[in-house]
Amino acid sequence: MPDLSLESALSGVIAGIDEVGRGPLAGPVVAAAVIIDPATLPDELARQLDDSKKLSARKREHLAALVQTHCRFAIAQASVGEIDRINILQATFLAMRRALDGLGLAIDHALVDGNRAPFLGCQVHCVIGGDGKSLSIAAASVIAKVHRDQLMAQLDLIHPGYGWSRNAGYGTKAHLEALHRLGPTEHHRNSFAPVAQLKLL
Question: What's the sign of the alpha-carbon dihedral 52, 26, 84, 76?
């Protein structure tokens, strides 16, 4: 379970950063940055926050609301157009920078989930499996996931048939079948192989 031991080993203002949506065929990549103040952290969050993938959708939504009430946070994204133009890794880093900037504070240290360090204008510490180790990264993973899932559910209402409210834009069998049947939308990533191959047909 994540805790604040990584944060406690550092001094100054520390933000945890995570992203969601690197792999889908459709929709933006979303990043979140969270600063946790141990003095105001509710016990429920300290006990129950975890890697968003290990939590049910209902639990994520409940914890996301608590994070947004009790922590300083920012959520940002990079668009499909940006993903296609600069590639998914650089678009992910862009979303992370935007999230960090959205906090409105000078950050001394950023704890970033993964093994690739974006340039953020502060000390960056990559933490492999960080959403299972750092409480602030776990908080970021939860609010980013909830935000993106809600966004994809809204887009599903505009573009029904692809199952985005269920698959969040990932390349499930149903999504791929719909791509071939309906064709890509403006929310699909043209630089991703299953979409690019359709464009060549």
Answer: negative
Calpha distance 40→104 (Å, rounded):
19
5-62 pLDDT, tens digit each: 999 999 999 999 999 999 999 999 999 999 999 999 999 999 999 989 899 999 999 9
Structure tokens at 72: 């300083």
Residue 25: CB partners within 8 Å, gap ≥ 6?
169, 170, 171, 175, 179, 188, 189, 192, 194, 195
Other beta carbons within 10 angstroms of residue 94's beta carbon come to: 20
Token pair belonging to 155: 């887009």
User: How many C-beta atoms lie closer than 10 Å to residue 61's C-beta?
Assistant: 16
User: Which portions of the chain are predicted below pLDDT 70?
Assistant: 199-201
- Sheet with 14-20, side-by-side order of all strands: 72-78, 29-35, 14-20, 109-113, 123-127
3-state secondary structure of 185: coil
Residue 190's SS3 state is coil
Q: With contact defined as beta carbons under 8 Å apart, do 148 and 92 qualify?
A: no
Amino acid occupying residue 143:
I
